[in-house]
Specification:
Blueprint lengths: L9 H11 L4 H10 L8 E2 L1 H14 L9 E4 L16 E7 L4 E7 L3 E7 L4 E5 L2 E5 L4 E4 L5 E5 L5 E7 L1 H7 L4 E3 L33 E2 L1 H9 L9 E4 L14 E7 L8 E3 L3 E14 L2 E6 L3 E4 L6 E14 L1 H7 L4 E3 L3
């Protein structure tokens, strides 16, 4: 089997590998070892985003683009990639008074969390209307028709979070523009508003409630006991199952009181966070960021996470936790302070 390749130069053998579409595993292993380090959190401060939002308003519109949105890209992403953190894609979307974003649907699950705006925006999800206010969560699950329009007077900015990266990796990505057709029947939210009672309808892993208000989340946090990390934390749930609102986008709201610091927490899952109110810091991945209202930041996996608040703070968190939970790969640990 020996050939003249025994004496070929490094440059020539690398060219032959490339031409043959092969890669030496021993070099891949070295590259993997060199990347085993703690990943710091990524941070998009609202102060830095405001001028970029202003430019987006001046330079484009929903009439010329499918959505006026700025993708939040992992600083370590490869050229051409646009994920925010593993399995999750996030963007800031802007809608002005009088504008509308036309209907479409796609395979990716998505949610909208309002960062700024005093109302007037409505999202229609499979025919059901979901008004949007600051701090509200609105769901647009995969394959559900959705559109937005603005009848208010002030610009609205919300955080989009999708599992687009996962669908692209799996080859399950698809997109369909309107017009809307084949819309299934939906159950009115009033059917789920009486505590301890549910309508006798078919169970679904996707929540039949598409709007979760900040006012309700805040009220729930008032009486929530302390979580294991010392914060007060609630989960947005599907009322039919008690599970996540969308199987692979699991959402929480955390309240930190002034001067409070959480117990270090480590998980195999990843998260995108949006600050609703307050000011504080998060330390993870060997880095510390200082955050304030409307900032967006990520929580990488496998490294201790510690939050601290300098004033009473509310932080929205969306994770890919259910991917790992269902595959049996979820590992979570609370560490000594």
């Amino acid at each position: 089997m020996l050939t003249d390749l025994e004496t070929i130069s490094d440059e020539d053998i690398r060219q032959r590998w490339q031409d043959a579409h092969v890669s030496p595993l021993w070099e891949n292993a070295k590259a993997t070892d060199s990347h085993r380090h703690e990943t710091p959190p990524s941070h998009w401060p609202w102060r830095a985003m405001q001028p970029l939002i202003a430019h987006a308003i001046a330079s484009t519109s929903p009439a010329t683009a499918e959505r006026r949105a700025l993708s939040l890209v992992d600083p370590a992403a490869r050229p051409g990639d646009f994920h925010t953190i593993t399995n999750l894609n996030a963007a800031l979307q802007i809608l002005l008074p009088g504008e509308a974003a036309r209907p479409h649907r796609h395979s990716m699950d998505a949610l909208r969390f309002v960062l700024e705006g005093e109302g007037g925006v409505v999202t229609r999800v499979n025919g059901k209307l979901a008004p949007m206010e600051a701090g509200d969560l609105v769901l647009t699950p995969g394959a559900f028709w959705h559109e937005h329009w603005h009848a208010g007077t002030e610009p609205m900015v919300w955080l989009d979070v999708l599992n687009a990266h996962t669908h692209i990796s799996l080859g399950t990505f698809w997109f369909e523009p309107g017009p809307v057709h084949d819309v299934p029947e939906v159950t009115a939210d009033a059917a789920f508003e009486t505590p301890n009672f549910l309508p006798d309808i078919e169970r679904s892993e996707i929540s039949p409630v598409f709007r979760y208000t900040f006012a309700d989340a805040k009220q729930a946090l008032e009486s929530a006991p302390s979580a294991k990390d010392g914060s007060r934390r609630i989960r947005y749930v599907n009322p039919l199952t008690g599970g996540p609102v969308i199987p692979y986008l699991d959402c929480y709201m955390m309240r930190l009181d002034a001067g409070e610091q959480t117990t270090p927490f480590k998980t195999t899952a990843h998260a995108v966070c949006a600050v609703v109110e307050g000011r504080g810091t998060t330390t993870t991945g060997g880095g510390t960021i200082a955050w304030e209202a409307r900032d967006v930041f990520t929580l990488p996996h496998g490294t201790p996470i510690v939050h601290a608040a300098s004033e009473t703070s509310y932080v929205f968190i969306v994770t890919d936790r259910e991917y790992f939970n269902r595959l049996g790969f979820l590992r979570e640990e609370y560490l000594p302070a």
